[in-house]
UniProtKB/TrEMBL annotation, chain A:
Keywords of the record: Antiport, Cell membrane, Ion transport, Membrane, Transmembrane, Transmembrane helix, Transport
NCBIfam families: PRK12599.1-2 (NF009243)
Domain of life (superkingdom): Bacteria
Organism of this sequence: Mesonia aestuariivivens
InterPro entries noted in UniProt: MrpF/PhaF-like
Keyword tRNA processing assigned: no
Protein name as it appears in the record: Cation:proton antiporter
Main location: membrane
Keyword Methyltransferase: no
Membrane topology (UniProt): Multi-pass membrane protein
Annotated TM spans: 6-24, 36-56, 62-84
UniProtKB/TrEMBL annotation, chain B:
Organism: Mesonia aestuariivivens
Keywords: Membrane, Transmembrane, Transmembrane helix
Name by which UniProt lists this protein: Monovalent cation/H(+) antiporter subunit G
Region feature (Disordered): 106-137
Transmembrane portions of the chain: 6-25, 37-56, 62-83
Length: 99, 137
């Protein structure tokens, strides 16, 4: 068994199972914070998938895309949390104004 | 020799990511979920990227991998803290079996400023007193 076959037939299915589990939580997640964290986690596992594919197909340029995905994951988490907090503040001010 | 390292590192990384995913589904509370996933997934991603660096054995790939690992190690705690803070402000409940909530009543609900609880009230009262004195004068 070569190293490429080991990565392709054992590591990739394990990562695929973990992506499915995270996606379950993304669908059922009761609060919106769970969904944001699940999205972040999906992108982060996508980075590892790209790393494994770059080994299997011997293309080191795939790692550039992994870097960009890491940047986007952080950006999306920060943006989502910023707007969540803003929305809460607006809601609270609104309810205060109603009183 | 490097094949052995690649197999060990990638297996450990995949195992950590799988455990993080299982914990993400099984944990009862969104704060516990955040705390479980950030650490385990960061370690797993780092290990698998390190195995890619060993496989290519190339300076440009190694520097790229080190940049990705450094960036993930820097940003994942920051993102977890931000989203945990936002979910606490939005009134997300803790697990009913958790023992204490140390943040309870320690932030101002409108300005979202966290404090030790007492000092802001005192400052507010001081400010009100000053305004009152000014009005009287």
């Amino acid at each position: 068994m070569t190293i490429e076959e080991y990565l392709y037939y054992i590591i990739l299915p394990v990562l695929a199972i973990s992506v499915l589990l995270v996606f379950c939580r993304f669908v059922i997640g009761p609060s919106i914070a769970d969904r944001v964290v699940a999205l972040d986690l999906l992108i982060t596992i996508g980075i590892t998938l790209i790393a494994i594919y770059s080994i299997v197909y011997n293309q080191s340029t795939f790692l550039d895309i992994a870097m960009i995905l890491g940047l986007i994951a952080f950006l999306s988490t920060v943006a989502f949390s910023y707007y969540l907090e803003k929305r809460n503040r607006k809601k609270r001010e609104k309810s205060k104004g109603d009183e | 020799m490097s094949d052995v390292f690649i197999v060990i590192l990638s297996s450990l990384g995949a195992l950590f990511i799988l455990l993080a995913a299982v914990g993400f589904v099984r944990m009862p509370d969104s704060y516990l979920r955040i705390s479980v996933t950030t650490k385990a997934v960061t370690l797993g991603v780092g290990l698998i990227l390190a195995s890619a660096a060993i496989y290519f054995d190339n300076l440009s790939v190694t520097s790229r991998v080190l940049a990705i690992i450094l960036f993930i190690i820097l940003t994942s705690p920051v993102g977890a803290h931000l989203i945990g803070r936002a979910s606490y402000f939005s009134g997300n409940k803790l697990w009913e079996k958790s023992i204490t909530d140390e943040l309870e009543g320690k932030y101002q609900p409108n300005s979202h400023r966290l404090s030790s609880g007492e000092e802001y009230e005192d400052e507010d009262e001081k400010r009100k007193k000053k305004i009152r004195e000014r009005d009287l004068l």
